């Protein structure tokens, strides 16, 4: 934003003193409005913003229809994918240069945004559910939280449960969805009220991603109908979910209160597990 | 633009406007006409919520940027604190934004939230808790966008005022200095 000021401030005949003042004010501008322009490229796992250069360049004429057609392509290219999450630092969007929004750099970015958001879901999933070196530091692991992965997992679990149910399908779905959504919110509040340090959305995101093992378990149970097999699969899925959620929850609170924070989480996943077993 | 007529603008970004309205309208329409399309509540829920979520994404990432030049997002910094960031075009580009586009953007945003609230009241009166869930999700998505963009707009106005006052101050001081240097 600040760099664009330099492009659009009109030149006027002046002596060197006012030029120096102008330069000084421009430097002040860039210093003061810096944080708004600097984008989060510091996270190791995130891909660098695709076109941070547009902030500096100044002659990109854009026809809006091109960007809209790219969003059309975007829609066609990701029909079954979950809706991409709110982008963290989509740098190319606002190229403030007075010529209007740039289509060349917008065409790329809409697709790039989609790709980047999908990639973020995958990387968040990997960070939360699979063994990786960042697990010790919860703040670092889910830095780029997003709620679209959890949304997709909750809906998928509800659909899987509803599919397996022979009666009252809609009620099963509604109960599963409401239980998981309200449960995630309440569990987060629980941690916050226990004096823990966790960010609301980060925790919601985490609890949603930890549903992935249970999703896998529910999918397998949908296909196999043997009760014993179901119990074993659900137990494994439950153990995996709890293992995934443990470091984040326990590190967020005081060590004395670890159990108080963890127990409701385990209870929620246990009840979902029971739902999976009991549905037939 | 036709110079002979007084300020008669057309939409500058018709396709973006179309998509902006499309998902909102189809979510509302699908919810209203759901009984015609599908018996199963699950399908109604999933399709309505997916349409509402797509609309949220489109408004936040595409039409917000193109129609009104605003963008908002959340970051978590090194200290682990969550920061909400607001960004806008510089004031010359903002002044250049098509009035019709911006009018459409804001009004459809508000009307969408109002429509979902009305649906919520209906389902509350009929004690249909299942449908209340759908309405709740769609309403929260709509309200999130409204709050984000309103804060962004306020932030943009503050930035413009700050920049304008800084520019005036710096020009004033440079004028003074040049005046004194001539003396």
From TrEMBL, chain A:
Region described as Disordered: 1-99
Record's GO cellular component terms:
Golgi membrane; trans-Golgi network
Q: Which InterPro entries match?
A: Yip1/4-like (IPR045231), Yip1_dom (IPR006977)
All copies of the Yip1 domain together span: 141-274
Cellular location of this protein?
Golgi apparatus membrane; Membrane
- Would the keyword Transcription turn up in this protein's UniProt record? no
Q: Which GO terms describe its biological process?
A: endoplasmic reticulum to Golgi vesicle-mediated transport
Compositional bias (Basic and acidic residues) at which positions? 21-31
> What main location does UniProt list?
Golgi
Sequence intervals crossing the membrane: 147-165, 172-193, 199-220, 227-248, 260-279
Q: Where is the composition biased (Polar residues)?
A: 1-18
The way this protein sits in the membrane is described as: Multi-pass membrane protein
* Keyword entries, A-Z: Membrane, Transmembrane, Transmembrane helix
Give the protein family. Belongs to the YIP1 family.
Q: What is this protein called?
A: Protein YIP
Q: Which organism is it from?
A: Gossypium tomentosum
TrEMBL record, chain B:
Listed transmembrane segments:
28-58, 103-125, 131-150
Superkingdom of the organism of origin: Eukaryota
Compartmental location:
Golgi apparatus membrane; Membrane
Q: Does the keyword Transmembrane apply?
A: yes
Chief site of localization: Golgi
Keyword field contains Transmembrane: yes
Q: Which UniProt keywords apply?
A: Golgi apparatus, Membrane, Transmembrane, Transmembrane helix
Protein's GO biological process: protein secretion; vesicle-mediated transport
A Pfam entry, by short name = DUF846
Topology in the lipid bilayer is annotated as: Multi-pass membrane protein
Report the GO terms under cellular component.
Golgi membrane
Function per UniProt: Golgi membrane protein involved in vesicular trafficking.
Query: Family assignment?
Result: Belongs to the TVP23 family.
Q: What is this protein called?
A: Golgi apparatus membrane protein TVP23
């Amino acid at each position: 934003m600040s760099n664009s000021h330099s492009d659009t401030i009109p030149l006027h005949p002046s002596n060197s003193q006012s030029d120096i003042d102008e330069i000084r004010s421009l430097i002040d501008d860039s210093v003061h409005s810096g944080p708004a322009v600097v984008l989060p490229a510091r996270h190791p796992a995130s891909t660098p913003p695709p076109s941070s250069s547009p902030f500096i360049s100044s002659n990109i004429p854009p026809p809006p229809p091109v960007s809209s057609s790219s969003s059309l392509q975007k829609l066609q290219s990701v029909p079954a994918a979950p809706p991409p999450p709110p982008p963290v630092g989509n740098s190319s969007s606002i190229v403030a240069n007075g010529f209007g929004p740039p289509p060349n750099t917008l065409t790329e970015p809409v697709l790039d945004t989609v790709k980047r958001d999908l990639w973020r879901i995958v990387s968040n999933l990997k960070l939360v559910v699979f063994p990786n070196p960042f697990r010790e530091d919860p703040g670092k692991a889910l830095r780029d939280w997003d709620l679209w992965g959890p949304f997709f997992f909750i809906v998928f679990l509800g659909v899987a449960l509803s599919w397996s149910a022979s009666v009252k399908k809609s009620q099963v779905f509604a109960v599963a969805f409401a239980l998981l959504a309200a449960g995630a919110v309440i569990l987060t509040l629980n941690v916050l009220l226990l004096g823990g340090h966790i960010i609301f959305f980060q925790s919601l995101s985490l609890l949603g991603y930890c549903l992935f093992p249970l999703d896998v378990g529910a999918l397998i149970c949908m296909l196999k109908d043997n009760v014993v097999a179901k119990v074993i699969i659900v137990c494994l899925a439950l153990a995996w979910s709890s293992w995934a959620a443990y470091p984040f929850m326990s590190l967020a609170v005081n060590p004395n209160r670890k159990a108080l924070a963890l127990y409701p989480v385990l209870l929620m996943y246990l009840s979902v597990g029971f739902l999976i077993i009991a549905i037939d | 633009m036709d110079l002979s007529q007084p300020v008669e603008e057309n939409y500058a970004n018709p396709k973006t406007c179309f998509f902006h309205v499309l998902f909102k309208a189809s979510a509302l329409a699908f919810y209203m006409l759901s009984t015609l399309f599908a018996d199963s509540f699950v399908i109604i829920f999933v399709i309505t919520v997916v349409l509402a979520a797509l609309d949220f994404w489109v408004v936040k990432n595409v039409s917000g940027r193109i129609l009104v030049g605003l963008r908002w997002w959340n970051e978590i910094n090194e200290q682990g604190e969550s920061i909400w960031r607001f960004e806008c075009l510089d004031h010359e580009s903002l002044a250049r934004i098509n009035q019709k586009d911006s009018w459409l953007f804001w009004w459809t945003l508000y009307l969408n939230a109002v429509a979902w609230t009305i649906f919520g009241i209906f389902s509350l009166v009929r004690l249909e808790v299942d449908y209340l869930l759908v309405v709740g999700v769609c309403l929260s998505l709509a309200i999130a966008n409204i709050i984000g963009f309103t804060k962004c707009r306020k932030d943009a106005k503050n930035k413009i005022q700050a920049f304008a006052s800084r520019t005036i101050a710096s020009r004033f001081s440079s004028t003074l200095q040049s005046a004194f240097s001539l003396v």
